[in-house]
Amino acid sequence: MASFNPRVKTVASSLPDRVTELERQVEEVYREMDRKNQALKELISEAKGQLSTRIGGAESAIRGVEKKLDTTMLSGIKQQIFGVVIAIYGAGLGYFS
Q1: pLDDT exceeding 90 applies to what percent of the chain?
Q2: pTM for this predicted structure
Q3: What is the distance between the alpha carbons of residues 77 and 49, in angstroms, rounded to a whole number?
Q4: In whole angstroms, what is the distance from residue 27 CA to residue 95 CA?
Q5: How far apart are CA 48 and CA 54, in angstroms?
Q6: What is the rounded (10 degree) CA torsion for 74, 76, 77, 80?
Q7: 19 near 10, Cβ under 8 Å?
Q8: Cα–Cα distances in Å, from 95 out to 21, 34, 82, 84, 86?
Q9: What phi and psi values does residue 17 have, to the nearest 5 degrees?
Q10: CA distance linking residue 23 with residue 31, whole number of Å
C-alpha cells in the first residue's frame, strides 16, 4: 500500500486557490480511506476463509472421535452383556450342581 501524506500541499495565495487545495486534500483523504477500507475487507475475508477451513477440519476430527467412541462403547456393552450371561450361567451351574 502506498504511503499517504495528506500534509503535502501546494502553496495557494488566494482564497479560491486555498479552497481548491483543501478540497483536493479532502478528496485524497477519502480515496485513502476507501483504499484502506478495501484492504481491511480483503484481510477480513481471508481470515474468514482460513477460519472456515480450520473449523471444517476440527469438525471432521470431532466426528472421527465420536465414531470411535461409539464403536468402543458398543463393543464394551456387548462384552458386558456376555459377562452377565456367563455369570448367570455359572450361577445356574453352581446352584444345580
Answers
A1: 43
A2: 0.53
A3: 42
A4: 100
A5: 10
A6: 160
A7: no
A8: 108, 89, 20, 16, 14
A9: -65, -40
A10: 12
The grid cell for 7 is 500534509
Q: What is the DSSP string of the chain?
A: -----TT------SHHHHHHHHHHHHHHHHHHHHHHHHHHHHHHHHHHHHHHHHHHHHHHHHHHHHHHHHHHHHHHHHHHHHHHHHHHHHHHHHHH-
* Distance, CA of 24 to CA of 26 (rounded, Å): 5
With cell 484492504, the residue in question is 39
Taken in order 73, 74, 75, 77, is the CA torsion positive or negative?
Answer: positive
42: cell is: 480483503
35-49: pLDDT as tens digits? 999 999 999 999 999
Neighbours of 24 (CB within 10 A): 13
